[in-house]
Design a protein that fits this description.
By secondary structure, this protein is of the alpha+beta class. It has three domains: about 120 residues, Acyl-CoA dehydrogenase/oxidase, N-terminal domain (Butyryl-Coa Dehydrogenase, subunit A, domain 1, Orthogonal Bundle); about 110 residues, Butyryl-CoA Dehydrogenase, subunit A, domain 2; about 150 residues, Up-down Bundle (Butyryl-CoA Dehydrogenase, subunit A, domain 3). About 55% of the residues lie in helices and about 15% in strands. The strands form three sheets. It has a four-stranded antiparallel β-sheet with strand order 2-3-7-6, with helices on one face. The longest helix has about 40 residues. It starts with a helix and ends with a helix. The protein binds flavin-adenine dinucleotide (FAD). Flavin-adenine dinucleotide binds next to strand 1, strand 3 and helix 10.
C-alpha cells in the first residue's frame, strides 16, 4: 500500500511540474520572446519579467516547501533553467546565483537563519547572489583577501568583490571572506556571511559586458561593513570555503542547463533557416556541408542534456556529483559556444545581423565557459578525480 501511495505521490508531483512547465513555456513564447531583442540591445533590466518569475514562485524553485519554496528537484529545476535560457539566458541568471545563496543557507544555516532567510528568498523579498570573485582572484578562491574581523558580537567586513551578478538590483549577498588571513591550509580561515544591502555594502561599479545583458554584474565595496555574528552562515568560522564549493555542484548543474538551452536555441534557429534559405536552386539544408553542421549541433545538444540529466539525478539522489556536474557543465557550455558559431555560419550574413537572435547567442555563450569554474578548471578537476580513483 505504502509503495502505491508513494508512486501516486510521484505521479501527482510530475503532473504538477508538467503543468508548471507548460505555463512557463507559453509565457516565454508569448510574452518574453517578442521583447528580448529590444531589452537586450538596450541593456535594460527586465523588471516586468522578473516580477512574473516571482509570481511563478521561481525565486523559491529549489527552496523546500516547508520554507515557502516550490521544492523542485534539481532535474526539474534544470529543465526550467534550460527553458529560460533557450529564450534569454539573463532571465535564468536572475534566479541562479540567488538560489545558490539560498542553497547554502538551506544546507549550512542555523535554524534561525533558515527561518529568517529562506521564506524571504522564496517570496522574492530577499533577492541576491554570490560574492566570491575579487579583482585579484576568481579560480583561486582561497586567495580571497576580503576580511571579516570580530568586534564583540559583530564582524567588520572589509574588501572588494567584483563580477557580482544581481548585486545592484538585488538586496543581499552570500559573501566569502577570510576570518583568519594567516590560516594554513588557507581554506581553513574562510567563512561565509549572509549580508544585506541595508548592512551597508555599496555597488561601486556596474561592469560593461559582451553579452549576458539586461542583468546587472557589478563591483561591490565592503568598507567596514558591520554585521551581527548571527549572519555568519552556520555559526562556525573556517567552514565557508567547503560550504561554498559544495554548493557549486548545483551551480554547475545550472550552468549546464543554461548551456543546453543556448545550444538548443542555436540549433533551432539554424534548422529553421536551413529549411527556407535557398542557394543553387535548393534549400541550404539540402547541401551536405550544412547537414554536417546541423548533425554535429544536434549531437552536442543531446550529449549536453544527457550529462546534465545524469548529474541532476545524482544530485537528487543525494550523491556526491562534482565529477558529473563538472562534466555536464564543460560539455554543455562548449556545446553552446560551438553551436552559436555554427548557427551563425549557417545564417551567413544574417547571423551577423542585430535583427536576428543568433548574434545574441554568440555573445551570450562565452560566459558559460567562465562562470562556476572556467572550463579549463573543470578539465583539471575531472582529470584529478579520475586519477585519484586509481590510487
Ligand atoms: C558575466 C559574469 C558574471 C559573473 N558573476 C559572478 C557572480 O555572480 N559571483 C562571483 O563571485 N563571480 C562571478 N563571476 C566571476 C567568475 O566566477 C570568474 O570570472 C571565474 O571564476 C574565473 O575567474 P577569473 O576571471 O579571475 O579568471 P582567472 O582565475 O584569473 O583565470 C584566468 C585563466 O587562467 C586559467 N587558470 C587559472 N588557474 C588555473 C589552473 N590552476 N589550471 C589551469 N588553468 C587555470 C583559467 O581557466 C582562465 O583561462 C562572473 C563572471 C562573469 C564574466
Amino acid at each position: 500500500m505504502k509503495e502505491v501511495a508513494r508512486k501516486e505521490a510521484i505521479v501527482a508531483e510530475a503532473n504538477l511540474e508538467g503543468d508548471m512547465l507548460s505555463v512557463l513555456g507559453r509565457w516565454l513564447e508569448k510574452d518574453v520572446k517578442p521583447k528580448v531583442r529590444d531589452l537586450e540591445h538596450a541593456d535594460e533590466y527586465p523588471t516586468e519579467m522578473v516580477e512574473q518569475l516571482r509570481e511563478f514562485g521561481l525565486f523559491g524553485a529549489t527552496i523546500p516547501e516547508a520554507f515557502g519554496g516550490l521544492g523542485m528537484s534539481a532535474s526539474t529545476y534544470a529543465r526550467v533553467v534550460e527553458m529560460l535560457s533557450g529564450v534569454w539566458i539573463s532571465l535564468s541568471g536572475i534566479i541562479n546565483s540567488h538560489l545558490m545563496m539560498a542553497e547554502l543557507v538551506k544546507r549550512h544555516g542555523t535554524e534561525a537563519q533558515k527561518a529568517e532567510i529562506l521564506p524571504a528568498c522564496a517570496a522574492g523579498e530577499f533577492r541576491g547572489g554570490m560574492a566570491l570573485t575579487e579583482p585579484g582572484c576568481g579560480s583561486d578562491l582561497q586567495a580571497v583577501t576580503t576580511s571579516a574581523k570580530r568586534h564583540g558580537d559583530s564582524y567588520k567586513i572589509q574588501g572588494v568583490k567584483t563580477w557580482i551578478t544581481n548585486a545592484a538590483m538585488g538586496n543581499c549577498l552570500g559573501v566569502l571572506v577570510k576570518t583568519d588571513l594567516k590560516a594554513r591550509p588557507r581554506y581553513t580561515g574562510m567563512s561565509l556571511f549572509f549580508v544585506k544591502k541595508s548592512d551597508g555594502y555599496q555597488v561601486s561599479k556596474r561592469l560593461g559586458k559582451l553579452g549576458y545583458k539586461g542583468i546587472d554584474t557589478c563591483e561591490v565595496l565592503f568598507d567596514d561593513v558591520m554585521v551581527p555574528d548571527t549572519q555568519l552562515v552556520g555559526e562556525n568560522e573556517g567552514t565557508g570555503f567547503l560550504q561554498t564549493v559544495g554548493a557549486l555542484e548545483l551551480g554547475r548543474i545550472n550552468v549546464a542547463a543554461r548551456g543546453v538551452g543556448v545550444a538548443g536555441a542555436a540549433l533551432e534557429a539554424a534548422l529553421g533557416y536551413a529549411r527556407i534559405r535557398e542557394t543553387m536552386g535548393k534549400p541550404i539544408g539540402e547541401h551536405q556541408a550544412v547537414q554536417m553542421r546541423l548533425a554535429n549541433m544536434a549531437c552536442r545538444v543531446s550529449s549536453g542534456r544527457a550529462l546534465l540529466e545524469i548529474a541532476a539525478r545524482a544530485f537528487d539522489a543525494g550523491q556526491r556529483c562534482d565529477l558529473e556536474a563538472g562534466m555536464a557543465k564543460l560539455v554543455a557550455s562548449e556545446a553552446a559556444l560551438e553551436n552559436a558559431i555554427d548557427s551563425m555560419r549557417i545564417h551567413g550574413a544574417y547571423g551577423y545581423s542585430t535583427e536576428l537572435d543568433v548574434e545574441r547567442l554568440f555573445r551570450d555563450a562565452p560566459v558559460l565557459s567562465i562562470g562556476e569554474g572556467t572550463n579549463d578548471i573543470q578539465r583539471v578537476l575531472i582529470a584529478k578525480t579520475l586519477l585519484g580513483r586509481g590510487k
